[in-house]
């Protein structure tokens, strides 16, 4: 039999404190490792630069998704700047690292309070070693905050179901759901999972076996109705502005492909860094936990199955041609991973004798340990630290900078030259730079380049192609324009291999005339010729 004995208490026990502390330390080490030297890539620089804009510009950007994360990041970077802390990769990613660490602790507590401490600790360890979790903990985006808030909202729901007459837990639950939706709009699928899970719990045959929630077997349905209705009204009213913005300013998410069975495989493989044996072991543990929950019909497994599967099914169906919403992508499903981790832990810890559960835990952890080991060497998505570091070393006052293609280069440049390397001499406005007030890039047309390069002898062209393409795949008129304006390529720099192999390049162009190295030399020669002619005229 499973250890589902309820322990009515409000305080933390010493084993829980020790276990959660260990979880926090392990999570902190794995999530922080390699971050200080890890370049922020395009998506991250967009979030960081957006959060740094004046409030009117932030309001007109129509980036309602991850709004809560953007606001918190803005506050954090403002406070750190006041005390003289630069927005380094580690500093900018702390609002992701810390929430993901607390999400792991929340998983341990949920498992401990509603199952057993061993189950909670195993679940949190499986969560920490998950490839999607590690990646997003080291990414300056709102997915970690969303994961934490979804965990906390489920925890509040569990307490509200145990004590439905205490209205404050319904209010706390509603506030956490609202915060989760503002952290990432796809949290609405977690809300749907909560509705489905609670509905299943009210099926009489399930309610009779839901020992974790004894109130479900009482005749007092009024408390559930009042508390649930109050929560729904609060959530609906608070999320209405977000719904209006989402319908009137729909973002372009078409790069996410139509969901197929292969996409389900990608969701699983992303969690184990594409290692087959850990993926098989993890899925087997999930199925064992689900089978256990369905066989004994206890409340927690039923809710966990809903937490895990409803968003997966919902986002899969909405990423079909009929709806064309493009919501099914591994990182978009991150809020389901706590439930999958808990299910796997429940399945493992159900094994008897105990040494079998301990042995299987060690085997699975050893298999999943391959995930961070293989992830860290290829964690670099776009090597911007190397790129802009090289540029900073070679740039001299009066030189020029051009970004191509404009947005894929201009947005990262807004962070590196405007924040990380602010005050180091690099210009913040140049052809292809991103202008947040206009939500567009400055022109890179021939006319714009001609005016910008007047009086300049050297210009650095930064090429950042889309996705995993090579710089040679970028075709525009900039190289031709430079040659027409009298510039020739003098040297190129390509950083080391990154996750997007060969995706960044810097080309240095110098102004040349036939037999003349630069416009400075040309001016000197012309001045000398004018002086000789003046003297000849005077002598005559």
Can I get a quick summary?
This protein has 23 helices and six strands.
Folded structure, characterized:
This protein is mainly alpha-helical and 540 residues long. Helices cover 60% and strands 5% of the residues. The protein has 2 domains: 14-32 and 64-378, no CATH class; 384-523, Rossmann fold (3-Layer(aba) Sandwich). The chain has 23 helices and 6 strands. Strand 2 and strand 3 form a beta hairpin. Residues 1-9 and 514-523 have low confidence and may be disordered.
Indicate the proportion of strand residues. 5-15%
Number of beta strands: 6
How far apart are the first and last residues' alpha carbons, in Å?
A: 116 Å
**What does the average pLDDT come to?**
86
Main sheet, how many strands, which sense, barrel? 4 strands, mixed
Shape: elongated
Name the poorly predicted regions: 1-9, 514-523
Helix-strand string = HHHHHHHHHHHHHHHHHHHEHEEHEHEEH
Percent helix: 55-70%
Sheet/helix structural class: mainly alpha
Total separate domains? 2
Q: What is the helix tally?
A: 23
């Amino acid at each position: 039999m499973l250890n589902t004995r309820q322990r009515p208490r409000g305080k933390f026990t010493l084993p829980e404190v020790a276990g959660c502390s260990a979880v926090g330390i392990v999570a902190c080490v794995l999530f922080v490792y390699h971050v200080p030297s890890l370049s922020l890539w395009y998506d991250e620089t967009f979030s960081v630069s957006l959060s740094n804009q004046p409030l009117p510009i932030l309001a007109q950007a129509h980036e309602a998704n991850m709004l809560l994360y953007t606001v918190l990041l803005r506050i954090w970077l403002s406070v750190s700047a006041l005390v003289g802390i630069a927005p380094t990769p580690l500093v900018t990613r702390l609002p992701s690292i810390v929430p993901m660490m607390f999400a792991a602790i929340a998983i341990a507590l949920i498992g401990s309070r509603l199952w057993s401490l061993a189950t909670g600790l195993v679940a949190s360890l499986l969560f920490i070693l998950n490839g999607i979790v590690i990646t997003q903990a080291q990414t300056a985006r709102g997915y970690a905050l969303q994961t934490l808030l979804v965990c906390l909202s489920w925890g509040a729901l569990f307490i509200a179901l145990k004590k439905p007459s205490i209205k404050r837990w319904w209010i706390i639950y509603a506030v956490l759901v609202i915060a989760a939706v503002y952290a990432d709009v796809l949290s609405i699928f977690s809300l749907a999972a909560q509705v489905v899970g609670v509905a299943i719990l009210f099926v009489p045959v399930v309610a009779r076996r839901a020992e974790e929630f004894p109130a479900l077997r009482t005749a007092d349905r009024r408390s559930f109705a009042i508390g649930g209705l109050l929560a729904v009204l609060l959530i609906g009213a608070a999320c209405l502005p977000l719904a209006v913005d989402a319908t009137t300013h729909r973002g372009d998410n078409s790069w996410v492909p139509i969901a197929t069975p292969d996409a389900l495989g990608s969701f699983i493989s992303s969690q184990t860094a594409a290692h087959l044996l850990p993926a098989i072991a993890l899925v087997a543990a999930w199925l064992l936990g689900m089978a256990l929950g369905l066989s004994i019909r206890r409340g927690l497994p039923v809710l966990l199955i809903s937490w895990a599967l409803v968003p997966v099914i919902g986002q899969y169906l909405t990423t079909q041609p009929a709806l064309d919403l493009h919501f099914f992508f591994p990182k978009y499903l991150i809020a389901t991973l706590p439930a999958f981790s808990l299910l796997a832990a429940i399945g493992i810890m159900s094994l008897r004798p105990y040494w079998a559960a301990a042995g299987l835990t060690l085997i699975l952890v050893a298999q999943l340990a391959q995930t961070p080991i293989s992830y860290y060497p290829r964690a670099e998505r776009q090597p911007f630290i190397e790129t802009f570091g090289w540029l900073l070393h070679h740039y001299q006052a009066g030189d020029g900078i051009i970004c191509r293609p404009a947005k894929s280069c201009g947005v990262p440049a807004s962070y590196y030259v405007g924040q990380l390397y602010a005050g180091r001499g690099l210009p913040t406005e140049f052809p292809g730079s991103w202008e947040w007030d206009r939500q567009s890039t400055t022109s890179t047309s021939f006319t714009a380049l001609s005016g910008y390069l007047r009086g300049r002898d050297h210009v650095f062209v930064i090429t950042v192609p889309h996705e995993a393409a090579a710089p040679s795949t970028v075709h525009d008129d900039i190289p031709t324009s430079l040659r027409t304006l009298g510039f020739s390529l003098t040297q190129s720099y390509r950083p080391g291999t990154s996750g997007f192999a060969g995706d960044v390049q810097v080309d240095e162009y110098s102004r040349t005339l036939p037999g003349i190295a630069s416009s400075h030399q040309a001016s000197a020669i012309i001045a000398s010729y004018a002086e000789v002619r003046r003297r000849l005229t005077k002598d005559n």
